[in-house]
Amino acid sequence: MRAVHREGRQRARGSGGRKALGIVERYLREGRPEIVRSTRAGASSAFLFVNRRGGKISRVGVWKILSNYGKQAGLRTSLTPHMLRHSFATHLLERGADLRSVQLMLGHADISTTQIYTHVVEERLKQVYKAHHPRA
Q: Which of 18, 20, 115, 134 has the fewest C-beta atoms lying within 10 Å of its C-beta?
């Protein structure tokens, strides 16, 4: 997904699905202008997600935002980008996505890195089996 500049406006384009594109379009219309309103660089910034100064948001900035949301949600452990990434991969595999597709989405160079997530899925299958099979 990327933001495309046209006639002074930004528009989201990509293959993220209609719902995701709709959310990004709304952010571009309503959220992003609010963030960059008081900055010089923000309005013309090429970055989709920006910090308070209109520059690109850093990985630490994303971490802080997620951490705050985790606290607001009452999570006992700190929410991190890696946790979201791990959950994303695990959910895809649990729903039947093939390992190669998940590898590409996560940007792993080696499939063995992605195979780590299959362990979580196998453990879940064991739990389901033990909980629901009459002879477990």
A: 134
The string of DSSP codes covering 26-93 is HIIIIIHHHHHTT-SSTTT---SSB-TTSSBPPHHHHHHHHHHHHHHTT-SS---HHHHHHHHHHHHH
- For residue 16, the SS3 value is coil
* Cβ-contact 51, 57 below 8 angstroms: yes
Query: What CA–CA distance (Å, rounded) separates 117 from 120?
Result: 5
For residue 49, give Cα distances in angstroms to 36, 59, 93, 136. Answer: 10, 11, 28, 49
Residue-wise pLDDT for 41-70, tens only, equals: 556 677 888 888 778 889 999 999 999 999
Closest CA to 106 of 76, 85, 130, 78: 85
Residue 74 backbone phi and psi in degrees, to 5: 80, 20
Question: For 3-38, how does the pLDDT look when each residue is reduced to its tens digit (9 = 90+)?
Answer: 555 555 555 555 557 888 888 889 888 888 888 776
